[in-house]
Hints:
CATH class of the largest domain in chain A: Alpha Beta
Oligomer: homodimer
Number of domains of chain A: 4
Strand content of chain A: 15-25%
Structural class of chain A: alpha+beta
Amino acid sequence: MSIAEKMAANQKQVAISEFFEKNKHFLGFDTLNRALITAVKEAVDNALDACEEARILPDIVVKITKLDNSKDILQLEVEDNGPGIPRASIQKVFGQLLFGSRFHAIRQSRGQQGIGITGVVMYSQLTTGDPTHVESKIAKEATAVSVDIGLDTRKNKAIKSNQDRIDWGEKVHGLKIKTKLKAKYQRGRQSVWQYLRMTSIVNPHADILFIDPDGEKHHWQRVTERLPGRVEAIKPHPNGIELGQLQRLCSESSESRMTTFLRRTFSGVSQRAAKELCEVSELEEKLKPKSLSAQQVRSLLEAFQGERLLKGKAVKLLNPPTSCLSPIEELLIKKGLSKTIDSKFVTTMTRAPNVTQGNPFQVEVGLIFGEGMAADKPVEILRFANRVPLMYQQGGCLLTKAVESVDWRQYGLDQPGGRGVPKGPAAILVHLASTNVQFTSEAKEALSDNETVMEEARKAMLEMGRGLRKHLEKQKKMSKTIEKFELINDIIPAIAKKSASLLDLPVPDLAASITKIMSAVIAETTTTWNKETKQTDVHIILYNYTSRARSYTMLVNWPERQGATMVGNDLGGRKEAMGVWAWKLETLQPGSQTVIAYSLDGLEKGDWNETDVFYRGSQEVIGATKMDEKLLEEIRRQEEALNAPPPEEGEDSPDDEEEEDPVEDAAEPEPTAPAGDTKQTTLFGGDY
Amino acid sequence: MSIAEKMAANQKQVAISEFFEKNKHFLGFDTLNRALITAVKEAVDNALDACEEARILPDIVVKITKLDNSKDILQLEVEDNGPGIPRASIQKVFGQLLFGSRFHAIRQSRGQQGIGITGVVMYSQLTTGDPTHVESKIAKEATAVSVDIGLDTRKNKAIKSNQDRIDWGEKVHGLKIKTKLKAKYQRGRQSVWQYLRMTSIVNPHADILFIDPDGEKHHWQRVTERLPGRVEAIKPHPNGIELGQLQRLCSESSESRMTTFLRRTFSGVSQRAAKELCEVSELEEKLKPKSLSAQQVRSLLEAFQGERLLKGKAVKLLNPPTSCLSPIEELLIKKGLSKTIDSKFVTTMTRAPNVTQGNPFQVEVGLIFGEGMAADKPVEILRFANRVPLMYQQGGCLLTKAVESVDWRQYGLDQPGGRGVPKGPAAILVHLASTNVQFTSEAKEALSDNETVMEEARKAMLEMGRGLRKHLEKQKKMSKTIEKFELINDIIPAIAKKSASLLDLPVPDLAASITKIMSAVIAETTTTWNKETKQTDVHIILYNYTSRARSYTMLVNWPERQGATMVGNDLGGRKEAMGVWAWKLETLQPGSQTVIAYSLDGLEKGDWNETDVFYRGSQEVIGATKMDEKLLEEIRRQEEALNAPPPEEGEDSPDDEEEEDPVEDAAEPEPTAPAGDTKQTTLFGGDY
């Protein structure tokens, strides 16, 4: 045998399970500490996904027990109240890699790959030699299935043993897994505790109980009964599809006409668009997709990409529906951040949905600033993807790179050289919601590079940075004015008193003089949580420290869409827009003041920490922002975009819709603006 | 159907090829720039691996052509003079994922997974719709095979077309691939050019020609005719094996006796050790491995891990042979660094081989410091794994973390806060050679966390840091002494002249006075490349600026093992140890000086930039290091460990050896010290 033949003779096909057993670090099993977090993560993510899909409010119990201290062998138990898994599917879900329901579905979910939990079973078997114990009960069966699952890694098949039926008593449905693994339990920033805490922040509808190896219980209670909006699987969008994909979609299609194929296979293609696509790519509408030549597929792709024009214009496609996404939403981010870190100033920013490579996505960011955080350390970065906290590989993650790409010095944070993670008493939260989160590896801990996502994340940071700068400037201005006022209030009376005593005259009334010197109108606003009433009290005092009478309309933002109600608002006023309230105040005489006070009911501590105050009037108000139509429009738009009501709960699974024929029935929607445009938010904000 | 059943009904098995097509970013195809580098990397790595295995000095040509500017479509051609691939194997190598020869082999190689080049074919097909053209010629066939390979991703099977036989003229063997892909060519730090340049640095035996899209040719010529040492596949080592692996090895074994099984299946197990392992794990020697119970396997693992004792001691195992590794070696690192960056001071450090999870590995580091580099920027980190440059994900890589974990301030580099990448005019090279490089993902760009590897890398950095500190201290001391000397040489004569002229006396001889004031012995050493003679000239001047006569033996290090010869050494001297030369000098009178001069032949520019000078004598020599036995032993050890001769070239492929029966024939080697110990280096340095 020649050397080439000898070398070739050594080549073999490797099973996917052998591959991942050898490369278990790809799955997040590199160190003993991380192995445990990975196992918890995979089990909890699955529980949350299953509950969300079955529209069940999740109750999750995680228990870790030390089995053998000297050998780092731990036992992990995770139990949920999800729909359970039918008997026949258990072995595939737990004992077969790349088996799952979410791989081909275009919608936001935590799991996507069909690797996670099987990886846990495999790691457990590799390090302890034992199978994983699974119990599952589905609602329609009287008893639960109890079975041990191992893995034949040479064949990527489950090894089932000890299968039985057991009684679960009261519990109607759910899943329990019990697995042993070589791992270490540790505390701190990269710990199971931290992972579950962060998970509870972005999944406030979940109840999570954690029993640690010392038997101590940590309970994160459900904060809202409202499930995240139901996400619907969508069809691929022509925007960003690759030639190879399109070739396959055509060749595998059984449709008999191009127009039907285009409408049924893709999202965003109306009947009119389908006809126009055929026209510009010079394909007959009657053509069978299966019969397309390579060149014809190429023409169609060019039409998709807007390279073939109809009367000088690209064929207009609708944006993909964003019902496939489930962002955390502004209010929850604020709440989460406020709960995690006890500080006053929180700003958030949710970008409108955008599309990359045919996948809708949306970026949300939040920033908390102030007391209680170290001023000389890098800010903490809290990364999330599809509501899952990312705990490792911060340095290699696109979300971190987006933070690092901003020159934070101009927004009031310290940043040596204007690059890298800024320093200061702040924490930054970034969340990517996407139908296809592109991670750097199967361990799902860091996002890989993508220009469009990077750009969105960067823009969100910049906008948020402006919010921070405004806040810091306002604070600075206020504190300067107050300093001046206090100085004047100290010195002028002292001079007056001294002068009066020297001249043997009575001390004059100084209000007018002080006012003249101050020459400013000041608004002082406090937003505080009232423990007694469980309400958020807002208190605004407007001082007229000028020599003239002043007239103002004062306005505030308030969380109307989030279901808050305004109570104890004695001054009345009127609704200016959704989430904006206005009071036309009586004329304010020089040296006088007016108080606006009201409370917000229906919120919880941390929901609403700061009220933005605006004014309409000729003289500047320190501590408030001048309202103009552009700003009002912006507030209106944000409200509309971000605070859409939860979707109606239907009985049908989203997949059923695909069986209907959309061609004949569907009304012809108007083409919308391209992705990234502001108009897009109406799609997202609308009823779906 | 209940919700649980509906959900289960949607679950499907996904093919590995579908998985990687969707997750192409795992393979390094996330951005258009990186996609091109990844494609080049996979093709070149394969070429280098194949040539190395077939013991061929590689000639590689890489050509990139722009096909369609507007659409970012490039054509990549890579041609090598490797052994070629037999016709029947081509379709599997290029069209089937997880097919390869290196997955199960425990030895150092660039490719390990059987994914790389098929990933390129897949990405090409996905983005352009076209197959990849492959031509292959093996030595024993008269013509080359020409064929186009595509991929059926639903089945993970190749699609073959246009197969033919063509004439290659003179060329006896090799491989050509030509593929089109959506990608961007760009210059700079993350570019094809940079990748090939770094590759040539650590593969000096390769000749690489690159033709860029502008038709410009970049040629990195072969620098040495010596191939890297042949790496041999070894058997798994009991150290760090997991229970699940051991179970499988037992159950799949056809051996009839435990002792034979232990000797034949594992490396490091002698006949005596096999008997002892059986004894402590209470297994009869005659037992069939296949028949072991779960508990018996567990006992055996405990014996492996040293938890079962024989007369109070763990069973001694041999270290795994390190013939499976191919480090770059100190001299090449120095050479590589000096060639890349034009600076004077280079220090390197190669750690002795160690073992993690049964896999031998070795860490090598190098540091270059000085002129021509920015002093206020982070140092450049050059990462390599198994002679492959790592270009992406620097932040998430263990090698970077090792650099960051050192407090470089104590070694003379700037590092705010004592953490993170240090700043200064330096570049740090780190190379991990391992039989199983654990990357964070299939893209093979960053190493995942591993405590043992981290510790080795850190130790290497610390030792190297000490070298840097010594150099900087020496430099500082020298420059201070010279400054003092120059000052004295200026002032004293001026005073003498003035005084003499005032007193009308002749100017006195000042040498004695100056010497008295200086009170130091100074060695000035220069090591320079002589263009004319193609030799490295070393010049040492020893000044006695003290008032007494002095006696010294001076010593230098020199690259004896690397094949250099010492010429023009008129002072003679003698060999003190391998790589250390010594001269016993004549007594040096006060104010006098001696010159040691010689040249090194057989080296190339950049091979040897600095000579370390040592002395034996009572008075300190500024510019040299006091030699003691410990230091000499250290130098001896390093020489021995690092500069082993190239292995004998045999005709047999390494795998053939497995067919021999090692039990009867093999001599009983003595057990050696545990991994990490210095003794281990003798194993590595010995003849193999």
